[in-house]
């Protein structure tokens, strides 16, 4: 894993800017607690913070190679799971290696193939190469957008970093957010390339961005494409299982302790069971971890989203797979702790508004990091295999909008209700969403002869895989790297994504249930209880003490009437929520309070210039 940053300025010598480069790198110390490094030559400067995973002594960065035409230097974040095969091929082409790291393989891959190395990589990665032979910077991001990567064009070059905070540490970048940034912040549409901060962009997934003296240009090396699916059901199930076995095997490779994140749902259970089976062949046990809340199992109240608590299913999987399991049990006080909220906002650079689910994820990862450095997650299986409730909702299927927005509004409430009326009018979020939706669906290709229903389901799947999942991947990366934990996402392997995306909906749901292909492909390793379990989202606390703590904190905030948060939110709506007598133990009831407190914390930490016109 790691954190990368850099600066290219064609009008100056950056070897004299070591203090600024150091400041940019140090903003990401949590992403790379094991080592630091900087490199500068002429108009280019690169910084790196390292979390050592593979070849602990040999993978130091920035990594460079001197050629007769100039130096080629690289900073790299992530993992390349097919680096062994690539290394073998490169050796056959005359390359020599001095380390066993995947970083050196990527560097030599660039020397051999240029930016076309991207097409050869299987993994999660964000990396930048300064090519002194041509005085150009090449930035490359993985196909699914697992690893974050932001950049900020300047009049004579570019700033970049794994996270916006690295860019904001440079005096050339100002912490500003304009109306479009606020629109993105208050709508879960994840517009490709949008970075919220004014002047910043994201390197889009599957994209190469090249910067030289003539300017900036992009090249898409991968996109989710529509193709005919000709395999029958049995062949499709067997192919899914074969892919999963290979993916898990590759993603278990590490020179540090590994574990799995186990929720008791189909996705994490299947991934944990497959990992356990593979490691058992080497005489090893899988460590597994689950999040739980004090008193949740005994006092659980079923609702439309969550019909059962996770813990009994977690324990069924742990027993069957014989994992070395541990429940991480969190209390309401920890979840509502303002210090935890501050850590979440610093990690995400934005008030993203996931409330206690962000806090619990951070605390879970912090506890895991004491025992493991790499964790495998079931993230993105719902997007790949069609697991969310909205896939089966007739209203959603007929709606001309992003599928999850209808579902979220129904089950989680609308946190934009807290906005000042004048700001809400200026933002015109409905118009922003409608424009984004039209752009998104226009890019989805329809197969010849595809029925209207199958095409609609293709659209829903595509939108989840190219928009919604990116928000969740960013959340998981930021929360895990905030404590120096690398989280891998086997279900994001592009081979699996491409294959399953192109299976028709009738095959994805052949038994009338969600994720039919995944369930059948892993049936032999699952306990019956999990095989039969209905989809349940990431858990959220039901403890009323958490809601009361939010109300108390909101009352404290109301006691500071000049706080800039009230330039954004309606003070009276916040007051109503803070003084409500009814319990605020549900996510809907807490939503506005969580959003307000997150916004206030963000304004305190970053002091952004918010441009409201």
UniProtKB/TrEMBL annotation:
L-glutamine binds at residue 102. Gene3D superfamilies: Glutamine Phosphoribosylpyrophosphate, subunit 1, domain 1 (3.60.20.10), HUPs (3.40.50.620). One of its GO terms (molecular function) is ATP binding. Keywords: Amino-acid biosynthesis, Asparagine biosynthesis, ATP-binding, Glutamine amidotransferase, Nucleotide-binding. ATP binds at residues 261, 291, 377-378. SUPFAM superfamilies: Adenine nucleotide alpha hydrolases-like, N-terminal nucleophile aminohydrolases (Ntn hydrolases). InterPro entries: Asn_synth_AEB, Asn_synthase, ASN_synthetase/amidase, AsnB_N, GATase_2_dom, Ntn_hydrolases_N, Rossmann-like_a/b/a_fold. The active site is at residue 2. This is asparagine synthase (glutamine-hydrolyzing).
